[in-house]
Amino acid sequence: MVDNIMKRKRIVMIAVAACITMAAQGQGLLGGHVTGNVQLDGQMSSADSTIGAQDVPEKLLMNARADILYTNGDFSAGLRFEMYQNPLLGFDARYKGQGLANYFVAYNGERLSVTLGNFYEQFGSGMILRAYEDRYLGLDNALMGLNVQYRPVEGVTLKALAGKQRIFWDYGEGLVRGVDAEVNLGSLVKAIGESRFRATVGAGFVSKYEEDETVPSAANAEMRLNLPLNVGAASVRADIGYGNWSLQGEYVRKGQDPSAMNGYVYHPGEALLLGLTYSQRGLSASLQAKRIVNMGFKSVRSQSGEMLYINYLPAITKNHTYAFLSMYPYATQVNGEQGLQGDVMYKIKKGTLLGGKYGMDVHVNSSVVVGLDTTVTGGAGTEGYEVKGGLGETLYGDVSVEMAKKLSKNVKATVTYAYQVFNPVVENEPGGLHHNNIVVADVSWKVSKKHSLRIEGEWMGSDSHYDANDPEHNDRRAGDWVMGLVEWNIGTHWFVSASDQWAYNDGRGNYYNLSVGYTKGATRLQVGYGKQREGLLCIGGVCRTVPASNGLTFGLTTSF
Amino acid sequence: MKHILPLFLALLMGTGLMAQNATLPQNITLRTIDGQTVQSSAIQNNGRPVIISFWATWCKPCNRELNNIKEVYEEWQEETGVKIVAVSIDDARSAARVKPHAEGNDWPYEIYLDQNSDLKRAMGVVNVPHTFILNGEGEIVWQHTGYQDGGEEELIEKVRELTQQP
Amino acid sequence: MKKIFIWVMGVMGVMGMGACDKIEEGEYTIYDGAVVSWTEGAAIADPVQRAYVEKYTGPRCSNCPTADVTLAGIHNDRVVVVAINHPVGQGMPYPGQPDMRTDGGTAWDQYFGINAIPAAYLNRDRSVQFLGEMGNIVSAIDAALGETPAVGLEVSATQGTKVDITVDIQFLRTIGSPLTLTAAVVEDSLVYKQLMPDNTVDEGYAHNHMLRKVITGFWGRDIEANGTEGEAVRGTLSFTPSDDIKTENCHIVVFVSDKGTRRVLNCASCRIE
Prior knowledge:
The structure holds 3 protein chains of 3 kinds. Chain A is mainly β. The longest helix of chain A has 24 residues, at 2-25. Chain A has 4 helices and 31 strands. Chain C has one domain (30-271): Immunoglobulins (Immunoglobulin-like, Sandwich), CATH 2.60.40.10. Helix content of chain C is 17%, strand content 35%. The longest helix of chain C has 17 residues, at 2-18.
């Protein structure tokens, strides 16, 4: 059934593609231009019991996509071709196949923008609505429908949209509708615009409609839930600045939304995000606070997993990039969490004791996330729980200090120390808290005009241990680790890198990787060989599990 | 099914030939670091070249690139009149840190936030860092993905080619 | 453009305001059952009055087979029988035997306050309970069948991946009070031990008309109609029979009843095609 629909869609889209091509070919007549990008990723993996990698029977896995955008003045049309034959390890098997995954026509005028077809959108920080895509996570919740944006006067933006969300090669049944308004007071009120005071305020409302279905009550299987067919979520927000200070806040509420995410309970949802920052040249500080209660908001209530989210709940922890710092990534707990993050960046001036000849950058970051303090009152078909004001169990905490200093004209070094507390509960795993100490040293050396080297060493000491036979301790990340990495850049086009990660206390295999890359203009080709640890790949607090793999990978991206 | 691929390849080849006169997408809503909305058409430099650099607070090569350019930016401006616009693709998780990050690093650039990657998508960017050079008419004349130390030399070389043309 | 946009915003805004359902505490759950979707229906040719007999029985009840004989004697296509095993005592299954008690049947049993079996109700008229050999039920059914029908009712069912049921209802006179439609599946030829009048246990006793599931929820679904004379509506619903139900031995039974008094106005049954 779905296949047939997709086939019919494909035929229509081939026609659209042909039209775009013709329009593009005939640009002398029609004008306009075409931009886009192509990406190809391939993987070959063979079994390796030491890291838990499985054999890939089809030998070669490949993901490919091409985005093509035709623009002519205020009008544009775009489409995206995707192919997963078969999906790379870690991508949902339901992506298997190929076809046109995204297409739209749009008018983008000075005051009015209208998009018909697939579109992406975000209201405020996205806590009530964010249609977005992350190709590395295999996430795409693009809406299919109508999106209108209107800017009646400078500083006022009104948005309205309706549509259904993409799930793999189909669209979810739930209908999403939303309106949003944002006003920049500085543009409207002259006195504010001329003062040092800045303020933007906004409000949005999103509603989801879904047909009734039979969901049994937890207390009595012969009772079914009286489901709300329309679920609404509203947001108010402000971004206020004065001089070097700024304060951002958003508060959202969601109506009763029993769903597979929250165990079909009727407790309403709410979330608060607050941020205060101070910044001046060479010094900045920020403090953020967040509290989430039952804010998982999907267009199909029976969906678990990462697809069909209407909203986006950002993680409050820092997005670390060094391998060991991000080994235990934190994923937002949509059913409830509360957290704080503080961040200070300071440039120690040149010529001081610590600053030396070139100055030194110091960056301190700390975050802590705990659960909600709740009393469970029932299961599916009840309010579910009461929320109290206290703190729940510790979910995550870290503190990191990073110092970056130019040692000479050609050598720059960065040293990072971090302490981390991780509760595997956030990944629905047992085992209690892991406490980790991490040290990273990262030195880049410009050897000559054409050659540069980057050397990275990392160490992680942990109170956790690995035991394949104990379900409480079979997390392959556990234990003490060392890592070394050498990256050699040749000119601006080539790079070669080699790295190895090794859990040195329990004799587990090395996770080595070799890769070579070539970049020219907007084209990049990379080939790698090695062992990939199983784990979570996380972007923005949203994660996907990636199984262990052992073998060759290659990737090509180009933009035009 | 099988007809789609050749058709697409033909399409891609057709489009590849016409990448010449693509311009900066207009009327895409961005945000300034003070939280105000502006249209992408605000990115311009009075008839002189513009470098648009897509970056993110968590992207190490992006930060290396922007920090390294900072050291030569004044010279570049005197020589070519070029302006650098740094567009952050940080989403709600780190968007609040864009302003402190930029000011903490003492970056002299014009900075915009593209929180839901609307401009990134419209310009066909896959990964950050990704840098574009726009000529005085707002046409995209060169683009580059990734950053390796010394990459800024190639960048300014391309800008010089633009400004030295009669 | 501007006007169109304001219009669109307005419509979406109004939609938005109403687009959040609030369910009061205490109403979070409702009886399980299939949802009936209602559309305009067609008039029913030759509507007939049928009789709905709900019989409470049990495998350990020695008088029950006698009641079965009585009902078998009068059963025809205008008499619809649903047999329900009493939840306790004589209704309980013998060890190792299939348990034909259902949650829906138990709810009905408790509503009627059944305390001795066999017992039966005709058209769920609570004023007359038929007990024992049920001799007088025959004349009562005859009398009921002689009435002029208030609603015409027909049912058909087809088996696909699930069983789709189509119910046609026509109001033959104006009815002011709200009505409900209940649908159930009953199965014939279920063989399990039955205590016989001579106090022997018949291992090969075939039980007929046994209630297997109340499809619509125990007390049915509201019929979405004005109730004016001549009005016709069509209800469609579906259910997935559990694996232990042999659909070839089943009938779909539907009845229209008064929502308040629960008295049955008319009923119908069909095989699953």
